Amino acid sequence: MTDIDRVAPLGGPPVPPAQGPAGGALRRTNAFRSISALMLREMAARFGRKPGGYIWAVVQPLAIIIVLAFAWSLLMRSPSLGTSFLLYKATALLILQLYQNTATVVGKGLSYSRALLAYPGVTWIDALLGRFALNAMIGIVVAWIILTGIMVYEDIRTVLDWPKIFLAVALTCMLGFGVGALNCFLFERIPVYENIWRIMTAPLMLISGVIIHYEQMPHLAQRVLWYNPVLHLTGLMRDGFYPTYRPEYISLPYILLWALVPMALGLLLVRRHNLDLINSR
What we know:
Distance between the termini: 37 Å
Largest sheet: none
Number of domains: 1
Number of helices: 11
Helix content: 55-70%
Low-confidence stretches: 1-16
Mean pLDDT: 85
Number of strands: 0
Shape: globular
Structural class: mainly alpha
């Protein structure tokens, strides 16, 4: 029975919405449908209107990896870890891009779905979760395709530590969503912050272990850059691909702190001010 069917008897009080397990299941079903519809809409908008579609999602990071690997191969005989320049760059760059893309698209969740939020069945959390789920899935699939392709192409034989790889990917998605939730409030409340965000994240490739890993950095740089949580994630990802690599600087509680605090703060702020944010532009 829907809310429309719950008509109050003549002269009687209105019948409240469904409570208990049935009402909860209905709300979960509606939320799933809304999130799925938002994901399908964004898939069509981002990839359905461009020549090549999803191919560009793979080509763009792969091109950056190839350029970085080629440039670094001119300066060094062998990479700092392993024997493949491509794998060395890919293990860190793909984690960095997964974080950056997730934090950015979740941050723009309200503005992107503003027109659909006028419908009563679509909520602000649906908009954020829809963009997060789609971006995370695309990022993970792209990373799997590129990393598998590199290992097959260069015939790399190594022992992969799957728990560490899965943990690195999961924490990257969590950090991206947490920072993105806070960005969602700041992007809408302080429009200039979007430009500040671009400036702040521009040097991440240089300071997140993509070019060189933590142990090769100067001591002063290590002391300062340790506070960059993405540096911990790229190290954890490489730890899963290189059996001889033992990064002792990684702190899982520190990564979780960076993920959960912005997530809680961002979700609380958006929940409280979502109507003002949606109608602000």
